[in-house]
Amino acid sequence: MEYRRLGASGLKVPALSFGAGTFGGAGPLFGAWGNTDATEARRLVEICLEAGVNLFDTADVYSNGASEEVLGTALKGLRDGVLISTKMSLPMGDGPNDGGSSRSKLIKGVEDALRRLGTDRIDIFQLHAFDAGTPVEEVLSTLDTLVRTGKLRYVGVSNFSGWQIMKALAAADRHGWPRYVAHQVYYSLVGRDYEWDLMPLGRDEGVGALVWSPLGWGRLTGKIRRGQPLPEGSRLHDTASFGPPVEDEHLFRSSTRWKRWLARRARPFRRWRSTGCCNARPFRRSSSARATRSSSGRTSARSAGR
After folding, report:
1. Can you tell me the distance from the alpha carbon of 75 to that of 85, in angstroms, rounded to the nearest whole number?
2. CA-CA distance, 122 to 150, in Å (whole number)?
3. What DSSP state is assigned to residue 157?
4. What is the dihedral of CA 226, 228, 229, 235, to 10 degrees?
5. 85: enclosing H helix or E strand
6. CA separation (Å) from 123 to 54, 107, 291?
7. Is there a contact between 105 and 97 (Cβ–Cβ < 8 Å)?
8. Which listed residue (62, 154, 186, 187) is catalytic?
9. Exposure of 289 by Cβ count < 10 A (0-12 exposed, 13-18 middle, 19+ buried)?
10. Distance CA 134, CA 139 (A)
11. 62 classed as catalytic
12. Pairing of strands 122-127, 83-88
């Protein structure tokens, strides 16, 4: 397994990581993804570790906390050899403070996640969505406290826009709070918005990409065929309404046009240097540009995942 530094941090993560969204199996979305129990999860963890995959990603909303509970049980006795990534900020209930990134929500949410995971620390903690109603200073100062107490090791975000990340990074730099080193983002051959703004931002500011759904919400699995309905019982069939929009989806209607389109889109991937845990690949710099960058003392994003 190849290991890469996560963004501008000193943490090394594997080139591939394991997403625990199938653990637990509760609710209309995650119930359709899978219902892996602790016994099966343990076997999956062992397979991953045999291959050098030691980063496991989950979130509090995955099956309403059940994913974290199953993952925590599966990792018993293995904690020191693995990295745990989890996320929060999406609503966990109907109460006025059950969602968002307020100080109250983050402190309670982290305590609940630690309990469900059966651990005393979270290696990579990410905000699952931007909370426009909470000042970034409140969010970052709370994360700083949680990092200082040892409950969080590194912090990041998920599904943020460029201006949202930069606003937070500017505030972190002003006050000396921890900077985001990871961005868990949708990126695939049929969903490449990440390239236009967020990829160069990550490269410049040292925010590594943790890629989710690199197979385009199942559209790149090879199971979808021209003129045929979505396979009955498949995750995509049952959860398509939850999925992100897919550019150029009309190309799926013609296998010939699809193959030509895919070949054109795949070419840049071979030219870029891989920097991440799954498929995020920033543009390759020339040797002189890299030397200039190095002499300036700035660290570029070096990893991606999931």
Report:
1. 13
2. 9
3. E
4. -70
5. strand 83-88
6. 12, 16, 31
7. yes
8. 62
9. exposed
10. 7
11. yes
12. parallel
Helix (H, G, I), strand (E, B) or coil at 268: helix
3 state SS of 147: helix
CB 22 within 8 A of CB 45: no
pLDDT for the residue numbered 101: 97
DSSP state at residue 241: G
Instruction: Give dist(CA 7, CA 157) in Å, integer.
Output: 12
Q: What is the pLDDT along the chain (306 residues), one digit of tens a residue?
A: 999 999 999 999 999 999 999 999 887 777 777 889 999 999 999 999 999 999 999 999 999 999 999 999 999 999 999 999 999 999 998 999 999 999 999 999 999 999 999 999 999 999 999 999 999 999 999 999 999 999 999 999 999 999 999 999 999 999 999 999 999 999 998 889 999 999 999 999 999 999 998 988 777 888 777 677 777 777 766 666 666 555 445 444 444 554 554 555 455 444 433 333 333 333 334 444 433 333 334 333 344 434
Token pair listed for 211: 């890629």
Distance, CA of 168 to CA of 175 (rounded, Å): 11
Question: CA 58 to CA 46: how far, in whole Å?
Answer: 17
Q: What is the pLDDT of residue 32?
A: 72
Domains of the chain with CATH codes: 3-305 (3.20.20.100)
Q: Report the chain's terminal Cα–Cα distance, integer Å.
A: 14
